[in-house]
Structures are given as structure tokens and as C-alpha cells.
Amino acid sequence: MDAVSGAGDAVIDADLPVRSPPFHPTRTASVAGVVLAAGTSSRYGDANKLLARVDGEPIVTRAVRTYLDAPVDPIVAVVGHEAGRVRTALPDGVRVVHNPDYADGQAASVRTGVAAVPPDADAAVVGLGDMPFVRSETVTRLVRAFRAGAGDPLAAAVDGRRGNPVCFGSRWFDALRGVAGDVGGRGILLSAPDAALVETGDPGVHRDVDRPSDLDAA
């Protein structure tokens, strides 16, 4: 799993506190959304997994719509592999940016996506285009938790298990624009002094699509 937070291991994060709702925002904060949809789908086979269908629509369409239905603006979608085909599957209302270095790993897409976030944004919720089962309420909960000062960064979780997406405050943008390799922002999340998990009750935060069997199970 290409993971911003490393949730593919489904580990319990004893060192990260868990914040549970209700959250009562104490500030107004502008939060953008960044969806990483540039990968090569190497484990899926010859087909592009982002264009495989769930309930009659492409995985990436469904994943991005999660953000359209949440209080994030703008929404940046990072494309790379088969960029033209993926772009046509994206819903209206999304800013699309191209990552020419997508083959280098997820970090290149994180850098590209965060670089496209407006400079006056207070935070960005970063998620994955191959996770079509995340609920829009989960993104909303991350935004509310950030605005309530529950922590920074904040990772979506279920039962203490870290998942995706992750909300990063703007103080981490420079670090995110410098990440390398294929682990996205996980190192920042695990080393930040104020990092926390947000209980979502959403099993979709652990459900990515890597192989056709993942869709069969769904």
C-alpha cells in the first residue's frame, strides 16, 4: 500500500494519542485537499487500478468525490501514470496537477500536491486515489479536529489503528515538499510532537485497492 501514514500494516500506535469526537472548533482555518493519483498500479497487473470500477464508477472518481463532499477547498489531484486517462475520470471542481516524477515513488506526488496548495492555506488533508471507501464524514472530522486544536498532524484511525487520510498543518508544508522515497509523510506524522490519531469509526480508512482481489472482497 502506498500510504501517507503507513496504515497498510494496520498497527496499533501506542505512542500516538487518540482523539475522539465531538470536536468543537475554536478557530477558522482554511483547509485544502490533496489526492494522490499518480501511481503505476504495479501490483494490480496490466490495468490501471484507479480506473477499475466500484459501484459503476472509477475508483479515483469515488475517492476524489469524498473530498468534494467535505469542507476542503481547493482540492488538488496529482496525476502521473496514464495521466490523460485518469484526468478524464476526475469529477469537476478539482485542480489537476501533473507529477512528471511519479515513477520515483509516492513522495514525489506528495511534493507536487503540497506545492500546489495555496500559500495561505492553514492545512491540507492528504489522501490516496486508491482508497474509494473513505467516507466524506471522515475528512470532515479531520478538519473539525484540526480546527479544534486536537493535534497536528492528525491521521484518521479506527480502534487505534492508523489509516488515511492525514491532515497536515501548514507548518509541515516545507517538510512535505522535501520528502523522499515511497513513504509519503509517514516520517513527519510519527515524529511530530503534537501528532495524534482521530477516531473515525470508518473502516474505509484502512481499505485501499492494490490488487483485483481487493475489489472482489469489497
Architecture blueprint of SSEs:
Layout: E1 18-19, E2 31-37, E3 53-54, E4 57-58, H1 59-68, E5 75-79, H2 83-89, E6 95-98, H3 106-115, E7 123-128, H4 136-147, E8 154-158, E9 161-169, H5 173-176, H6 186-191, E10 196-199, H7 212-217
Write the CATH fold name.
Spore Coat Polysaccharide Biosynthesis Protein SpsA, Chain A
* Coarse morphology: globular
CATH superfamily: Spore Coat Polysaccharide Biosynthesis Protein SpsA, Chain A
Largest sheet: 8 strands, mixed
Instruction: Give the low-pLDDT segments.
Output: 7-11
Q: What kind of oligomer do you see?
A: single chain
The SS-based structural class is alpha/beta
Mean pLDDT: 90
Helix-strand string = EEEEHEHEHEHEEHHEH
How many DSSP E strands? 10
- Give the C-alpha Rg: 16 Å
Please tell me about this protein's structure.
With 218 residues, the protein is of the alpha/beta class. The protein has a single domain (7-19, 27-182, 194-217), classed as Spore Coat Polysaccharide Biosynthesis Protein SpsA, Chain A (Alpha-Beta Complex), CATH 3.90.550. Helix content is 25%, strand content 21%. The chain has 7 helices and 10 strands. It has helices at residues 59-68, 83-89, 106-115, 136-147, 173-176, 186-191, 212-217; strands at residues 18-19, 31-37, 53-54, 57-58, 75-79, 95-98, 123-128, 154-158, 161-169, 196-199. The strands form 2 sheets. It has an 8-stranded mixed sheet with strand order 1-10-8-9-7-2-5-6, sandwiched between helices. The radius of gyration is 16 Å and the shape is globular. The chain starts with 17 loop residues before the first strand and ends with a helix. Residues 7-11 have low confidence and may be disordered.
